[in-house]
Amino acid sequence: MRRELKTIIEVEKLAKDYNGLAAVKGVSFEVGHGEIFGFLGPNGAGKTTTINMLCTLLRPTGGRASVNGFDVAKNRLAVRKSIGLVFQDPSLDERLTAVENLRFHGMIYGVPRLERGQRIKEVLDLVELSGRQEDLVRTFSGGMKRRLEIARGLLHRPKVLFLDEPTLGLDPQTRHHIWEYINQLRSDEGITIFLTTHYMDEAEHCVRIAIIDHGELIAIDTPQRLKEEVGGDVIVLSTEDNKRAAREIVEKFNVEVKELNGELSLQVKSGDHFMPKLIKALETRVTSISLRRPTLEDVFLNLTGRKIRDEKVEGWDQLRSRVRSQRRRAR
Amino acid sequence: MKSALVGIYTLWLRDVTRFIRDKPRIISSSVQPLLWLFVLGLGLSTAFVRGGGSDYLRFIYPGIIAMSVLFTSIFSAVSIIWDREFGFLKEVLAAPIPRWSVAIGRALGGSTVAVMQGTIVLLFAPVVGLSFTAAQLLLAFLLMFMIAFSMTSFGILIAVRMHTHEGFQVVVNFILLPMFFLSGAMFPTQKGLPVWMHVLVSIDPLSYGVDALRQTLIGNPIYPIWLDILVVVCFGAIVLAIGVWYFERNE
Ligand SMILES: Nc1ncnc2c1ncn2[C@@H]1O[C@H](COP(=O)(O)OP(=O)(O)OP(=O)(O)O)[C@@H](O)[C@H]1O
Ligand SMILES: [Mg+2]
């Protein structure tokens, strides 16, 4: 009988100190069987460090954790056998073919020879790479490499699949595709998925998410409940004089106002009724206004007073990808 | 234990697969020792006029085999740096196999590739006017393997400590080339050298490897063969042990 409620990952006050730099500061959480569990946090929050400790690649400097019932510090080989891994950075042998990469993996993970060929075929079909299986990985696109890595992580039928930013740098279509595999995996193979991301929309796919910032867990719940905690709808407006408008709103409506990147945002119950009242009451001229349901971005903003991805960083990312595509075209 | 053996075999297989696949590398690394042998050998043999020109060519022939083995070994081992850079090392280090089996698998893979390279040079024996008995050949293979294994292990030790290619270049210039030139591969090192150089020659483990190959293939021993083998094997064992120790330790 399968015990659905049993936890498969247990983490207690887990900490990692890199020579004085506390990257993870004592986090505790549990992940249930068959869950899709997401770690959401900005750059440098400690997501990769946590994953690396759970995967036995890094030794914790404090606390304890177990995966599939095995302690990550004391029973490293058993943990390794129970998990599949997709690293944040590429980790394929580009001078081998797709099949050779998978065969290599199957061998070191002890997949029996008889089963290996069949299993390789299955995972290649899953990520739709069967047509390219004999090609050198060097000739693959970034998205294809990512898919191959996911296939490889699944090859030995792990109990838990760790995905560190599985869709980083991929186009929306490929990202969507990868999410299809992840959902399919969960329903077909019943495996537990632990992933990290800093894409808000991706975190929405998870059953539960933990929000991590500066090495500390600041919230952990279903995306739905986290958003409900924000309290009602979000109104974002810009005015001719934000400072004055903010003062006015606080005086007249007694709601908290945040100013960020030249915009004011406030959270209210039933925003559709509130918005007309607001525009009417304000003496400062409103130049634009919008209303939306709260997102995880708002949850993060609420908890930390910051956006998870700085606008500047966003701009830089776009610039980078534009430069990259131009270079590619030039070649 | 089974997972360790599987690890060793898998990493060995990877090195060999990659070598066989890489035709340009096979060709260029075969042509290079032949260039050394014939261009340098024939060119310099006019300078060593005593007893006819082909003497020098024969003299350096075992040295060129050792050179081929040495450089292939070191470069195979150092591909660990590439693996680290391309991330593949993480896949290996996260696998459920002991780390020492990774190091040994790589050492064996690198040595196998190096022995194949040495064999290519060995095939040119008739051109130099040499022919060997089966016993000579067998011993030569064993020696090539011992040299290869100990030099690959040395390369692994370097690669584990070294995180950049610039650093590796320094090692090539300050360790590898002196080791090669002092080994007696290219010129005789028993007589007429300054004392300090003679000391360096005697502590160069490759001197013993070259001497072993040379006395097996053309005679003229400097040291007894058992000493040669002892030095090469001990050197290999020590550097491998240190390399594995670092490998186990680093995160
Ligand atoms: N090997 C290391 N040595 C020293 N400090 C490190 C090391 N790896 C990570 N750090 C530091 O630990 C902190 C957490 O890093 P980590 O890679 O876990 O962040 P992350 O949440 O995965 O970020 P990202 O979204 O950018 O991948 C950062 O401040 C980082 O600089
Ligand atoms: Mg990370």
Describe the structure.
- The complex is a heterodimer of chains A (331) and B (251).
- Helices cover 40% and strands 27% of the residues of chain A.
- Chain A is α/β, with parallel strands linked by helices.
- In chain A, 36% of the residues are buried.
- Helices cover 80% and strands 0% of the residues of chain B.
- The two termini of chain B are 23 Å apart.
- Chain B has 251 residues and is mainly alpha-helical.
- At the A-B interface, helix 2 and helix 3 of A face helix 1 and helix 4 of B.
- The structure holds adenosine-5'-triphosphate and magnesium ion.
- Magnesium ion (MG) is lined by residues 47-48, 88, 164 of chain A.
- The site of adenosine-5'-triphosphate has 13 residues of chain A, from strand 2 and helix 1.
- Give the number of helices of chain A: 12
- Shape annotation of chain B: globular
Q: Identify the most extensive interface between protein chains.
A: A-B, 26 and 26 residues
Helix content of chain A: 40-55%
Adjacency order of strands in the biggest sheet of chain A: 6-7-8-3-9-10
Main beta-sheet strand count, sense and barrel state of chain A:
6 strands, mixed
Task: Note poorly predicted spans of chain A.
Answer: 1-5, 311-331
Q: Low-confidence parts of chain B, pLDDT < 50 over ≥5 residues?
A: none
**What is the mean pLDDT of chain B?**
87
Question: Number of DSSP helices of chain B?
Answer: 11
Query: What is the number of domains of chain B?
Result: 1
Order of helices and strands of chain B, N to C? HHHHHHHHHHH
* Hetero compounds: adenosine-5'-triphosphate, magnesium ion
Supply database-style keywords:
heterodimer, A: 331 residues, alpha/beta, 4-stranded antiparallel beta sheet, 12 helices, disordered C terminus, B: 251 residues, mainly alpha, globular, binds adenosine-5'-triphosphate
